[in-house]
Amino acid sequence: RLRYKGRAITRDVAKNLAKMAGLSVVDSVTKKLDILVVADPDTMSSKAKKAREYAIRVIYEPVFWSAVGIRVE
Fold first, then answer.
1. Is the pTM of this model over 0.85?
2. How would you write the pLDDT of the chain (73 residues) with one tens digit per residue?
3. Dihedral of the CA atoms 52, 43, 63, 17 (nearest 10)?
C-alpha cells in the first residue's frame, strides 16, 4: 500500500490529496471523466472496463501521484 508522509493512502486520503492538487474527484465513470486512477494497471474492474470503452485514460496510482507532484512511498 502506498504511503504519503507516513500515512497509508486510503480512499479518503487520496480524495483529499487530489482535491489539494486542484482536481475534481467523482465516484463514477462517465463520458465526462478525464482519467481513472487505479491501484492495479491490469484491472478488469467494471469502472476500468467502462473507462476503456469510453476511451478514458486509465492511470496507475503511483504514476498519477508523480504526475500531480505528490511524493509517495
1. yes
2. 899 999 999 999 999 999 999 999 999 999 999 999 999 999 999 999 999 999 999 999 999 999 999 999 9
3. 90
